[in-house]
Design goal:
The protein is α+β, with helices and mostly antiparallel strands and 183 residues long. The chain has a single domain, classed as ph1033 like fold (Roll), CATH 3.10.590. The protein is built from six helices and seven strands. The chain has a seven-stranded mixed beta sheet with strand order 1-3-6-5-4-2-7. The longest helix is centred in the C-terminal third of the chain and has 11 residues. It is globular. The chain starts with a strand and ends in a 6-residue tail after the last helix. About 10% of the residues have low confidence.
Length: 183
Amino acid sequence: MATVRRTKPAARPSAAAATATAAAGRQRRYWLFKSEPESYGFDRFERDRRTFWSGVRNYQARNLLRDEIQPGDGVLFYHSNSDPMAIVGIAKVVKAGYPDPTAFEPKNDYYDPDSDPSDPTWFVVDIECIGRMREPVTRDRCKQEAALADMLLLARGSRLSVQPVTPSEWNTILRLGGQQETW
């Protein structure tokens, strides 16, 4: 389970960075990020408007944050370990992976004494709030939707706090939640 920390609003990615991504021919990708509402819920994310997604201590999720998730990608914000568990909002990635500063803070719950700032182990991305789902899309509702039958979120034993979502799954979730991609 990842926790997140508020960051001060920063400049949007440069036009040059956006152009470089477009020039590389990379298509927008989609992700699901899990957070416990008591740890960092969507209400707080809406107030903060932007945050870095920190505290991920799983190598597979770390690799996605470090290597795969890029500015412009879409994020489904999922409340885990709650009743009900649900996708409650959407966000977009505004800054690509960089070293997780919490790994270097001895008083932080996610401090890792083995993570070296010159060769960091853990990474974060910055995300910006787009909006709340008009209707939360519960895990149970996802299970009822044939188009989501292969969604990683629903796989037995799937506990990954950062996971890929297909474009079809993204569009189905947005339809179910009454939300639109506006960027």
